[in-house]
Each structure stands twice: as structure tokens, then as C-alpha cells.
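Entry for the shared binder. Reason: the reviewer on the internal report wants the predicted structure included alongside the sequence.
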Amino acid sequence: MTATAAQWLDRIHALPHRGRVKIMNVCGGHERSITMAGLRKALPAYIELVPGPGCPVCICPEEDVFEAIQLALNEDVILVAFGDMLRVPVNVKKTRARTMEQARAQGADIRPIASPTEAISIAKANPDKPVIFFAAGFETTTAPVAAMMVEGVPENLSVLLSGRLTWPAIAMLLESGTPGFDALIAPGHVATVMGPEEWQFVVDKHNIPAAVAGFGTDSLLAAMYSTLRQLNEGRYFLDNCYPQLVRAGGNKSAQSHLNKAMNVMDANWRGVGIIPASGYVLDKAYSKHDARKLFPSYAEDARKRAGEMPPGCDCAQVVLGRIYPNECKLFGAACKPRNPIGPCMVSDEGACRIWWSGGMREPAAAKEQKAATS
């Protein structure tokens, strides 16, 4: 019989006490489950859970969002994008549209969608108008885009692609010499598509325990228990704690679509910089559906802070697991869900938004000040 979340928690508490252990959870969905279930308070005090770079909205290049906004404002097109992307701010003067929502308010035809099939439907319903699909996301959302391209799309549909791979960001952290974590929980949905083997390098190359987890608290706690036990025993391996969906080799059909429709390239991550082999670009066979080849470039070389976070925003440091959301000086002050300054407060997968939704709304500095004066 599979253990329950309560049983896994008991097993974790029964492990020998050790010095502080930092476990990074890569996925924004993991962070949401951890926060909403109150796992940080339920775990022994020596365990520190660190949110990682698993929020595609947070790391989508600022210049890509800017380009989407300018295409929608300056070209006679319909632009569609996944819903969260419409609220991501770019670094321009307040007199200009800073988000796709604001561009829509200025008259641009921008529509939120939930899946590539909706982009196809909109294109078919508007055969005389170009439709641009601003496709941002990690492997799990990029694979359906690749499948859409392989299976064939309407002539008037093009893709402004901003896809990223998850594992290279972790590789970059580990190769930096100061990764900031002692064990890793890898994303189950990515492993379902790409195969758990993608994460074997964490163990083999960096000698750090790792476990693949799903989104339920039972799977997450099982992964935490596995990595903690590995640390105690000094025997490290990649554990699959999501066997219900994660299989060796992953989804071969999805991988085939990705390999056929897209190529891997070095790519920019907002506020982080270029990460080798971390981005997708459409294969030249699909050039007639590549928005970057069909429409003028709206990149502005003179625009300052391109690729960075907004002034004062520490979202990039949150994404890299170097600080917690409430350690950003804007958190809970200038930056709130109704008025997000940085992308980490926009998406349900952004750590700042998750912490706010979970009730952790006080900036760390204010909390420390209260503690000092009480």
C-alpha cells in the first residue's frame, strides 16, 4: 500500500537529526503545493525548502514580451498568449503600454488562451487576419506547441516562440560553485515528457541526491524523505517518487514532435542572462509560421535594462533560490498581486504570488524588526 502524506511526514520526523539541509524544488507547481499545504511548518526545523527556477512566466525574456506588445500595437494582427503572460510588465516609461493587458486597453487585439488548440480555432475563425501565438513556457507547454506545428496549422497562424528547457538552469546553478541547496526535487510533469533520466546529471556529475515528485503532498514528502535518507546514508541516486506518470524514457511521441519542429539554442532568461542550450527555436522547415521571420523586428537596441527585472525587483534572485520572496524589498509593499512590479508576483507559479496567496505577506525586514522590538 502506498504511504499517505501523514505517514511520509512521520518518517521524515523519525530520521536522525542533522545540520540544516536545503532542498530545492524546481517547479512552481511544487512550490504552490508546499505552501498551500503548510509543509514548511510541518517539517522539522532543520529542513529548509528553497523555491527554484520553475516559473516560465517569471523567466520569459523581457524583450520577448516587449516584442509581443509592439506587434499587437503596430501590426494588424490578433495576438494570443497564455493568460498569465498578459500581466507581465516590461521596462518602459509609464506613458507606454507596460503589459499586454494595457496594450489591449489601447486597442490591440490580444486574447488570452489556455491551449494551442484555442490558437488554431481563433485562426480558423479569422482566416483573413494574421494570428500570432506568443508561446512562452517550459517543456510541458512547448511540446503541445511542437505537436501543433507537426500536425499542421492554418496558413494565417504564426508562432512567436519563447520556449525554455528546465534542467539547464539547475545545471548552471550547480556549476556556479554556490548552488544554494543540498538536494533536489525535480518536476514530475517535465519528467513525464522528457524522461527522468534528464536529471541523472545532478547525482552523477554533482554528487547531490535527487528525486522526481508529482504535485500531491504524498509524492512531495516521499521525495523529501528519499533525499534526506540519501544524505544520511551517503548513498546518492535519482529516485522516482511519481511512478504513476513518470516512466523511463518519457513520452517518446512528445519528444519526437519537439525534435522535429524545434531546435535547441542558447537562450536568455529574464534577469539571469544567457543559459547554454536552454531555449527552443522553430526549425527552418516551419519558417513560414515563424512570427520573427514574418513580421518586422520591434527590438530596440537603445532600450535600457532589456532582459532585466524592473528597478528594485529581486525576482531573478528569487528564481535562482538565492533569496526568499519576502526578502525582496518590494514584496508586500509596492509589489502585490493587484499591482505586480515583477513577474514573480504575476503567475500562480511565481514564488512571490504563491507566498502572498498562502498568507505570507509580510516583508522579511518588517518581520525581523517586529521580532527585535517585541
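Summary line for the report: DSSP finds 17 helices and eleven strands in the chain.
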